[in-house]
Design goal:
This protein is mainly alpha-helical. The chain has three helices and no strands. It has one domain. The chain is 72% helix and 0% strand.
C-alpha cells in the first residue's frame, strides 16, 4: 500500500511552526489593511494617476486597502492548509514509529 508520508518529522514540525506564524502575521496584516492603517500606506499599490485623475481619491485608495487586506486573508488561508498538511504528516510519522515492519 502506498504511503502518503512525504516528509520527515522535523520538517513537518517546522511546517507547523511556520504555518502558525504565517497565519498570525497575515491575519493581523489583513485586519490592519481592512482598518486602513496609515502606517501601511507604503504597501498599498497605487500610482500617481490614482490620486490625480480620480474624482474621489480617498475612495480609490480605500478600495486598494481592502483588496490588499483580502489578499492577506487568502494567504493566511493558504498557510492554514499548509499547516493542516504538516499536521497530517506529523501524525503519519508518529504512526510510522509504532508500526513494525
Amino acid at each position: 500500500m502506498p504511503s502518503l508520508l512525504f516528509c520527515g518529522p522535523k520538517m513537518a514540525a517546522c511546517g507547523i511552526v511556520i504555518s502558525i506564524w504565517g497565519v498570525i502575521m497575515l491575519a493581523m496584516l489583513g485586519i490592519f489593511f481592512s482598518a486602513k492603517s496609515a502606517v501601511l500606506i507604503e504597501d498599498v499599490p497605487f500610482t500617481e494617476e490614482d490620486i490625480t485623475k480620480d474624482q474621489n481619491p480617498p475612495q480609490n485608495i480605500y478600495s486598494l486597502y481592502n483588496q490588499v487586506g483580502i489578499n492577506c486573508f487568502i494567504a493566511a488561508a493558504v498557510y492554514v492548509a499548509v499547516g493542516a498538511v504538516s499536521l497530517c504528516q506529523v501524525r503519519l510519522n508518529k504512526r510510522q514509529e509504532y508500526m513494525v515492519t
